[in-house]
Design goal:
Helices cover 41% and strands 23% of the residues. It has 13 helices and 16 strands. The strands form 3 sheets. Strands 1, 2, 7, 8, 10, 12, 13 and 14 form an 8-stranded mixed β-sheet that branches.
Length: 387
Amino acid sequence: MSTDQDFYTELPVSPLPLSELLLQEELFSTVLSSWHVIITDIKSSTEAVLGGSHENVNLIATGSIVSVLNLAFDMNITIPFFFGGDGATFIVPECLISKAMQVLSLYKASTLTNFNLELRTGTVPVETIYEQGFHLHIAKYRSSKSFYIPVVLGNGLNYAEKIIKGDDYLLSGHDGTEHELNLTGMQCRWDKIPPPEDKEEVVTLLVAALHHHGQAAAFSKVMKKIEALYGPHRKRQPISVSRLKLVTTFNRIGLEMRTRLGQFKWLDQLQTWAVNLFGHVFFLTKKGRAYLKSLVEMSDTLVIDGKINTVISGNKEQRQALQQYLDELEAAGEIIYGLHVSNASVMSCYVRDMKDGHIHFVDGSDGGYTQAARVIKAKLKEINSEK
């Protein structure tokens, strides 16, 4: 028997190319009004990234996802979630909301203690979003053979984000005393990843539509142009097996320990260091090679959460052609975008099991998503000042 909590689980996965799916309104379902939006966001993340703490920022964002996904997994619930570099967004059913906010309250306290960074954790009922005249429509898109992502259209998540990030917003109020923080499976085992051997750079791109009614068409145009210039999803992937290198430095492993365990433990760090040091032996085995192949396929390099968020690799000429096209759409008043170029990507991971229970969150190095968002914020400020 179907229940509200099965809403996302039962959505069909579309076989269409993303640029076509975006235009098929009938393939999107309206998010149930009984569900809730949760947003986590690191306060002053731009300053933290500019100050050299981009690794901490990515790790903390990943940890917020892991804490909620572990809870959902234990309750046998599938939920849509979106990695944003310096935070995350979830859409969850009523039965999960209270427990999720309590777990995030624990994680917020741990983050402040261990990194001196404040994680905002807020929630807005989907019903409230609809009452205010905003919209949330969702579909599933298969980005690779073994990986699908939620695709959200509408301005509902943008509205929720503005409320939760507002200075006068009263945050969740949950103290987390009834639950334990579970960050099992969280890993940060990979060093900075240069672009594939035939590529020159990594591009982190954010695109927002300026008008709700033209959002789907604008996003379709952008995705079609990206595919024309860079090729399909697998060809523009910034992650390649040949470029993966396990972290062997105590400092990087210590970051993971502090995020996952809430404190620094020498024995755990030594064990993780040893696993990383000799991990290349495992990756020479049949199981190891299969894991690396699926790691690339299950890298979260494309997020559609009412905006386009993507990390791609290519060459300078491709990027310049893309920028020229985006400039044209921006000049026409269809979109606004932010773009950051770097020489590597960074990856943090959630590994529940080595076969098919793993997801890998990708950002451009030096805080690509945060830097791209900074560009958009500056453009929006200029637009608003001209009104």
